[in-house]
Amino acid sequence: MTARSQAFDMLRAVARKDEGTRIVHHFATDRRRVERMGVEAAGLYVDLSKQSWSAEGFEAAIDLARSCDVEGRRDALFGGEAVNNTEGRAVLHPALRAAEDAEFRALGEPVSKEVAETRRAMAAFATDVGSGAETGGTKQPFTAIVHIGIGGSDLGPRLLWDALKPLEPTIDLRFVANIDPRDMGEALAGLDPETTLVVVVSKTFTTQETLANADLAKAWLAESLSPRRMVRHLVGVTAAPEKAEAWGCGRTSGFRDWVGGRYSLWSSVSLSVAVALGWDVFERVLAGARAMDEHFTTADLEKNAPVLMALAQVFNVEGLGRGARTVAPYAHGLRRLPAFLQQLEMESNGKRVKRDGTPVDTATGPIVFGEPGTNGQHAFFQQIHQGPTVVPAEFVVVGHTSDAALDAREGDAPLWSNALAQAQALMVGKTEKDARAELLAAGADAAEADRLAPHKTFPGDRPSTTILMDALSPEAVGALIALYEHKTFVEGVIWDINSFDQWGVELGKVLAKAILKDVQAGEPSAGLDPSTAELMKRLMV
């Protein structure tokens, strides 16, 4: 039996024992619990003390991380080794936010100089558009940007913009991802082609949805601009610049194949955001992520925020069979965080085979879902409080949600007090005895109290993690996203899977092309399954 297998067996055994002990009991018997399970990291505070593990369970999780060589795999990631083994690629998104004097290598090839050159070009373009030095084909300054992408080319930049955009932005930035023409129609509504910049983001510049939307945008521009003038309005962000130029982009900004889509927001994929927010703001985002990289690579495992968050998830999923997790950001600016994490985590770790191609011997990534607080409280929180299935929760809490609130703590208190209360309620619950006593105190008779008490009982003992941010600053947002990136990587190491390929995305795309071909032919092809054929016939009417 390998050291990894032994460590997993120990984790499962301790988890089974911990399952019989309520979380509140762990606080009663371990006075140092908050100190041990609270971590400061790059300006964030992560509290894991409300997780289900005991002190023994916590140590078993640390031992598991060591047996899986998390530190060695981390060094391989930052060392530019082929950690994406199925595609033979390095994975170097940390290089994109590194300091100017960094010396990252991808499979031995120096890349930091190229990163710095791309970053300088992005900064110059952002500055020129912001100042009006860079104009459209009719010499008018740009007042709007339409960012076209999908998946990682959309979710990351959209999250940054929602989190950091001013209330009255100088540039109106709009995003299009869905191939449904209405998405593009809504994005273009009210815009002037002569003052609109279209940024098309596609790593290969072959993504079906992105190119379909890009064609719509180009046709819209062509109604008002000549081909010669239109090229100034089309920017391609891609690893295939020759394809972008052939399509019609007058300018391209590149990134390399060692930048995975869901890890790419630090690159020129966020060019439109850097323009709209201003380069200084984008640089601060990079600085926050860089600080989290420093924490991840230097902190001991016992105080390493990404490692501990990953271990808490492994403890819940593998140790306690909890196959879902909810994320509730208590900040309107982070409302896209759950969607971003769905791609980051489920596309990375939704795998059924290990790195060597053999079937996994553990559970892997759970279902991730969420909504911003307090909206989620009036939707799915009912189930996570009183449903029979235990769903671990994650609360992202911002002390000051806007600059206007910095000197008015009471302005934010109703928001973050709800977050703290939800985490507390999930843990402590309410017994049937207490529910009955409350009903009697409120004037119910004994029979009524007996009838209603079970409905007002909360099981409690439901785990959560809370992440505190002092303010929704660029640095804090950058650190938060990098925290989740590294957490996802650590989970992949422990589960022995490749977190950096996404073959599960491909099959449906291939079949969609085949179905489209049948539609163009006017009938289902021979051998198509009866259900799909019938649905196609009905839709072609």
Walk me through what this model shows.
This protein folds into three domains: 3-68 and 285-380 and 393-406 and 466-501, 3-Layer(aba) Sandwich (Rossmann fold), CATH 3.40.50; 101-277, Glucose-6-phosphate isomerase like protein, domain 1 (Rossmann fold); 504-540. Helices cover 50% and strands 12% of the residues. The protein has helices at 3-18, 23-29, 33-37, 55-67, 70-78, 93-96, 112-131, 152-164, 181-188, 208-222, 227-230, 241-247, 271-277, 279-298, 305-320, 337-349, 381-386, 409-428, 432-441, 446-452, 474-495, 506-521, 530-540; strands at residues 38-41, 44-47, 105-106, 109-110, 144-148, 172-176, 196-201, 234-238, 251-254, 324-330, 367-370, 393-400, 464-471. Strands 1-2-13-12-10-11 form a six-stranded mixed β-sheet, with helices on both faces. It has a five-stranded parallel β-sheet with strand order 6-5-7-8-9, with helices on both faces. A two-stranded antiparallel sheet has the order 3-4. It starts with a helix and ends with a helix. The relative contact order is 0.13. Mean pLDDT is 95; it is low at 404-408. It comes from Brevundimonas alba.
Question: How would you summarize the topology of this molecule?
Answer:
Blueprint: H1 3-18, H2 23-29, H3 33-37, E1 38-41, E2 44-47, H4 55-67, H5 70-78, H6 93-96, E3 105-106, E4 109-110, H7 112-131, E5 144-148, H8 152-164, E6 172-176, H9 181-188, E7 196-201, H10 208-222, H11 227-230, E8 234-238, H12 241-247, E9 251-254, H13 271-277, H14 279-298, H15 305-320, E10 324-330, H16 337-349, E11 367-370, H17 381-386, E12 393-400, H18 409-428, H19 432-441, H20 446-452, E13 464-471, H21 474-495, H22 506-521, H23 530-540
Parallel strand pairs: 5-6, 5-7, 7-8, 8-9, 10-11, 10-12, 12-13
Antiparallel strand pairs: 1-2, 2-13, 3-4
Helix pairs in contact: 1-4, 1-15, 4-15, 7-13, 8-13, 8-16, 13-14, 14-21, 15-21, 16-21, 19-20
